[in-house]
Description:
By secondary structure, the protein is an all-alpha fold. The protein has a domain at about 55-83. The protein is built from 2 helices and no strands. It is flat, with a radius of gyration of 28 Å.
Amino acid sequence: MVMKKINFRLVFSIVLMWGLFTVSGVLAQEGDPPPPPGGHGSACNQPPGGGAPVGSGVIVLVALGAAYGGKKCMNVKNFRLGK
Length: 83
């Protein structure tokens, strides 16, 4: 009797979660974006962000990550050597 109750609760919660996740995925769909406001300078919608340069920021981020990783490696090396 106890096993049937546990199985029923498990199946019920799985079906309930599956139903909620399926419905939320369908409700998350939106229609077309609104038209651009006046003075936008373009007749069609533009992607967000415009023409912001990303390349130089990525180079700086990679350089800082490499420097941080090198520092961590040197700390581990110095710790093992007992300096």
